[in-house]
Amino acid sequence: MLDSIRAVAFDCYGTIVRFTTADFIRTMAEIARAQGLEVDPQVLWDRFVKAAFVFRGENVARPAYRRYEEAWAFQFERAAHDLGFEGDGGLAAARLKEKLSQAEAYAEAAEVLEVLRGRYRLAVLSNADDDFLHACLARNGLEFDIVVSSEVAQALKPDPAIFAYLAGVLGLECHQILYVGDNPMPDIGGARRAGVPVAWLNRSGHRLPGDVPAPDVEVASLTELLTILVAGGGE
Known about the structure:
By secondary structure, this protein is an alpha/beta fold.
């Protein structure tokens, strides 16, 4: 499989940049305090995620595209309402964007990208708005040949359309791109449906959900992925 790979595309948050569900929950706690809401941040987060299905539709395989700024404002106000509060969605969305803009890259990310550069074309493919995604990459000094957000592609993982968009921009066939991501459903499920080989970055040793197809490669770190890719060749 690796012999045909000409480009490596990375998910951003949770893969090359350290911002996971736990960080979202901590941010929910900050937002609740700022708005004077006495609520368990885990409960608020759960309601926030549930509200996404109302906003984007029930088709989890092809979620309706909207900018995150708009979606988060709706989700927060819906979540707060369901919990008996009045929440300011605009302020909540702004805080989330700020946190994602300022998130730090994983320590090994820069070194891994530097070794891969020249061997493969490098890309980011992320469910994100352009503003906070590009700000985060620039802040961390991470450079890529191509950066594809859901905003520019007008599609959201796991929709295969966003992977097809990436392939078109790279000028490659889907099977020539290795996608690296940490989130099973959007990253593994989406890539596999698009015919894109996928490496699951499973830092915490989680079990793969039963409704998600097996990845082509599973690694515990970006450094482990680097060992595989360098051994496997490239251009």
